[in-house]
Structure formats: structure tokens, C-alpha cells
Amino acid sequence: MNALETQDCLIAAGDVRDGPVGMVHAIRPSAMGELDAVVGEVAARFARQAGFAARYGQVHLLPGADGTITTALLGIAEQADGTDPFVFGALPDSLPAGSWRVSAPADVQAADIALGFCLGAYRMPAFGRDAAPAAPAARLVVDAGGQAAAGMARCINLARSLINTPPNLMGPDDLARAAEMALAPLGADVSVIRGVRLAQEFPTVLHVGAGSDRAPCVVEAHWQGSTATETAPLVSLVGKGVCFDTGGYDLKPPSSMLRMKKDMGGAAIMLALARLVMLRDLPVRLELRLGCVENSVSGHAMRPSDVVRTRAGLTVEIGNTDAEGRLVLCDLLHAACERQPDLLVDAATLTGAARVALGPDVPAVFSNHDGTAGVFVAAGLACGDPLWQLPLWPGYRKWLRSPVADMNNISSKPMAGAITAALFLENFVKTDVRWVHIDTYGWNDSARPGRPEGGESLGLRAVYEGMLKIFNIEDRLHH
């Protein structure tokens, strides 16, 4: 399924023409006693005897009197704070071909059902001789709210597909072209900065990419909503697009390098978020900056103990060439701050330390404005895309000192790696700019309902919903 094409796993209610429409009943474990009333005594007894217990993501098909299957059961989580669209991702691969509706408890939103269904129907790009796995034949019947969720799913699946693309097919130029293809048709002014101009404006991006035959570049995009005035909020998005990270001279071990095609996950997520803002035509002014680069080993690669001068004029000693992401981001953040945005958000697959602290499913969020961080955390919990705040602890700033430069790109201590990385970035953000930094994993280690193994857009929906709340924007399509 191409993430930029029509989400063909959905069908509008008015377009259903032929054949019966099946019904999926979403059941919580606590409602198993009501199963007789939902599907009838005989069918309920059959389901229980077959082992249906409404476990999370459990799908059970109920045959009718003629042997056809037009009824199914889906186990969902007990009522809790926030939403969980992912459980409905178990349906596309479990239901027979045809059109289906979902009956769910009143507190489950139709948009979450449609979103989860679309996310479960996602197929990773295939590059082998054999055909790609067929898209699920089951389709979900939706109303207008459900159709709007397809736009969100397309953006999430765009990020997934970019991250999943093999690194030989997703170099800096490929990522830049993907950004142009995603944004230019929606009216964005997209430019790609290379060569001499890159050296002048983004010297640290150039320094990181110096070791690769695939030259680095920076994508800049500018867009304004159709109802946005010149005084509308300016939102600036920044993404780390390291298309492959060997670690440079501080070479990663083979096991750590296997997934390094995902090191451009921050750029993929910010690109997908920018596309979503444009599709929803939010009343904002939007800027996007992506640092597209490859961290390789060669005679031209950056070395440990190099000193590089940043766009901001600060000098950085390279303590470790595998801490390249913060070097990619620092010039982009400084460039964004020159425009004095009302909100600056960056995303990056930045540190293993964040994963040690919070695991793969919960990105770490840092902010120079605690109230803003709180909005993002609350929004993430409410939409089922959790974030968790870690502190910009000032006591650790001295760990980044260098005897030969203004700072080192790594800490002198083997602790708090996610915090010290964020503190490094803070040096390049104006104190009066509201800034949010997201350290995300960008990957699903194993397949779960609605979350196939591979690239993932962790943090995208949380940032989008947080943005709506910060600027008090009503997203009519979504809500």
C-alpha cells in the first residue's frame, strides 16, 4: 500500500453497493457476560467454547447458519484514560474479504477505529523478485470522521515507508526528493541546500557528511495555511535525517549497525507531520528543516578531536563521531530560531540512553518551557501516542566542557546521555523560543496489532495534538 495513495482499506458508507456488510463487535473482558445479548446465545456459546475471552487483539469469526462469516468479535482493552487505536489494527489480516463495520463501546471514537484499521493494513515496501504481500481484502465502512482518519494514517505510513526503505535506496538526495514529492503538491515552497551554500549555512551538517560519497544536503520548506495571516503562529519543525549511521571512526559494532537505516526516523516523522498539517490546512505558518546526511568512514570523514565551528559561531570538539545527530541538529535549530518561531519542535533518533530510560515505545521529551512539555505529554497520553518528560538538568552542563573548544559533542560522564544530548542542543536555541525536543526510537522491534515490525512514527500524533492545544486550533476534519 503506497502511503501517498488512497487508503483503499476504507470504504465510505454511501459507496457500499454489493454483498452483505459484516459486523465486528468490539468486546471488553468485563463485558463477556453480555455476549449472549450481542450475538445471540448459540453464537456466544460457540465463541466461549472456541476460546474467545476478549483478550487484547483477539479476533474470533462466527459462522452463520449457511456457513458464511458475517460476524466477528474483537477483544479490546478495558476502559482507561486515553485511546488505543492500535487494537483495531488486528482486523485487516483477520477478517474475510468484504465490507465490515465495527460496533464498539460508546467511549471509543470512530476515528480511532478507522485509524487503527488503516495502520494494521500497512504493508512494508517490497524490493524482491516476488510480488509484495497483497493488501488485506477486508475493508472498513466509515463515515466522514473515519475518512478523515485515513489522512492521518497516510502520513504515519509515509514515515514508516521512508524508514523501512533500504539505505542504498534512501540516501540524502533520496530523502530530499521524498520531501519535495510529499510537500510541493500541497503548496509548500521546498528548496534543497547543497554545496557551497551548505558549507556556509550548515557547516556541521557538512562536517558529518564529509566521509560519504553521497553528499549531504538540507531541505527547507515553507508553507502557510489558506486561512493563516502573516501574524498566524509560526511553527518550525526540525528533523535528523542520518540516512545511515556507521558511527564514523568510532565505528558501531555490527549488531548495532543493523538497524541504522532508521537513523533518519526523526526527519521522516517531521516530514510526515508537516504533510499532515498541510493536509488538514491548519491556520498556521509552517517551516520544515531536515538535515539529510550519511555518517560514513573514509579518508574524508570527521575524526575524534576535530573542532568544527557551527552556524551559531560556537566551536565544538568532536569527542565521538557516533554522536553525530546533535551536530546535524544544532545548525538547523539555530537557523530555525533566526525566524523567531512561536513553537520549535525537533525529533531525532538521538540516544540509546533514552531507550534505556524509557524503552522503545515512549519517546523522551525535553523542553525549555515546562508548561509546553506538559501539554505535549498530556496530548500524547490522550491520543495513545505517549511521551515522557525528562529534565534539562542544568547541573550536567559542565559535563560538556572542552579544553580546546566552546563545548564537546559528548559528555565526560557515562550517565544521563539523553539529558546531556538535549543540553548540547539547548545551546543553539534562543531562550525566548518555545522549544520541544523529542528523542524517539522510530521502530517497532516486533509486530503487534496496528504496529508491524519496522519503522514507526512514535511521537507524530502527540506533537500534532499538542500543537492544536497550544494554539487553540479546532481541527474540524479530525474532531
TrEMBL record:
<keyword id="KW-0645">Protease</keyword>
<dbReference type="GO" id="GO:0030145">
    <property type="term" value="F:manganese ion binding"/>
</dbReference>
<dbReference type="GO" id="GO:0070006">
    <property type="term" value="F:metalloaminopeptidase activity"/>
</dbReference>
<dbReference type="Pfam" id="PF21337">
    <property type="entry name" value="Peptidase_M17_N_1"/>
</dbReference>
<feature type="domain" description="Cytosol aminopeptidase">
    <location>
        <begin position="320"/>
        <end position="327"/>
    </location>
</feature>
<dbReference type="GO" id="GO:0006508">
    <property type="term" value="P:proteolysis"/>
</dbReference>
<keyword id="KW-0464">Manganese</keyword>
<dbReference type="Pfam" id="PF00883">
    <property type="entry name" value="Peptidase_M17"/>
</dbReference>
<keyword id="KW-0378">Hydrolase</keyword>
<dbReference type="InterPro" id="IPR048816">
    <property type="entry name" value="Peptidase_M17_N_1"/>
</dbReference>
<dbReference type="InterPro" id="IPR043472">
    <property type="entry name" value="Macro_dom-like"/>
</dbReference>
<keyword id="KW-0031">Aminopeptidase</keyword>
<comment type="similarity">
    <text>Belongs to the peptidase M17 family.</text>
</comment>
<dbReference type="GO" id="GO:0005737">
    <property type="term" value="C:cytoplasm"/>
</dbReference>
<dbReference type="InterPro" id="IPR000819">
    <property type="entry name" value="Peptidase_M17_C"/>
</dbReference>
<dbReference type="InterPro" id="IPR011356">
    <property type="entry name" value="Leucine_aapep/pepB"/>
</dbReference>
<protein>
    <submittedName>
        <fullName>Leucyl aminopeptidase</fullName>
    </submittedName>
</protein>
